[in-house]
Design brief:
alpha/beta, 7-stranded parallel beta sheet, 2 domains, 8 helices, globular, single chain
């Protein structure tokens, strides 16, 4: 029986942990060849060993998405090794949370660079390969924070920006068989949410309970919830779904 993503190559930025790793694993389990770009060398080695043990085809490449030369070299390596680049997931991200009046230039610049410049670099280079092969799926990871969240002026700005990029790409590249969509996670249990709990001085378990109490489905999200949504957009059968933002948050977001 043919697997859903057999003969497809998926590249996930920031794919060595959390949501990115779950996305990579979902694709791999469905037959895709996986490439991961990350700057965390130890995490890359760990995920590569884990995936190879499971029999997955994986390339784990240390590269900084902010550096366009790094990205170009990584993507060339992926195409040389696997033969194509079919799916790009822009997942790499960081947080530098603070109220605006306390936010430093560095807090702002780093978040803007990793999320927006990173997605710009990867997408601009990936689309060249996708246009040539007349096929591609670009999925950006946004956030419910795009709608505004106190203490996250930088993060909210980049996540809203990714939605604008998504919709613009959807109009530019669709004629080449490429779709562009975004998944906007709500409260997901990751190292990033643990860092938020630490920042505001709340035990993580209490933070999870407080978050779940505000979510209609009565629980917080798991990385696999986001991976499933990404897989929907990446599916070959989703070719008429383009320029959409899917909020995966356990309930309405307004």
């Amino acid at each position: 029986m043919t697997k859903r993503f057999e003969n497809r190559v998926a590249l996930i930025t920031g794919g060595s942990r959390g949501i990115g790793k779950s996305i990579a694993e979902t694709f791999a389990e469905s037959g895709a060849k996986i490439a991961i770009i990350d700057i965390n060398e130890e995490a890359l080695q760990n995920v590569q060993a884990e995936f190879k043990e499971k029999g997955f085809d994986i390339l784990a490449i240390k590269a900084n998405v902010v550096n366009s030369e790094d990205v170009a070299a990584a993507m060339e390596q992926v195409v040389n090794e696997f033969g194509s680049l079919d799916i790009l997931v822009n997942n790499a991200g960081i947080i530098r949370d603070n109220l605006l009046f306390k936010m430093t230039d560095n807090d702002w610049d780093q978040v803007i660079d990793v999320h927006l410049k990173g997605a710009f670099n990867t997408t601009r280079i990936a689309q060249k390969y996708m246009v040539q092969q007349k096929y591609g799926r670009i999925i950006n990871i946004s956030s419910t924070s795009a709608l505004g969240n106190a203490g996250q002026a930088n993060y909210a700005t980049v996540k809203a920006g990714l939605q604008g990029l998504t919709k613009t790409l959807a109009k530019e590249v669709a004629k080449f068989g490429i779709t562009s969509n975004a998944v906007a996670p709500g409260f997901i249990e990751t190292d990033m949410t643990k860092a938020t709990a630490e920042r505001i001085g709340i035990p993580f378990e209490d933070f999870l309970k407080a978050g779940a109490s505000k979510i209609p489905v009565g629980r917080t999200g798991k990385p696999s919830d986001i991976a499933n949504a990404v897989a929907f957009f990446a599916d070959e059968k989703s070719s008429f779904v383009n320029g959409q933002i899917l909020y995966v948050a356990g309930g309405p977001t307004n």
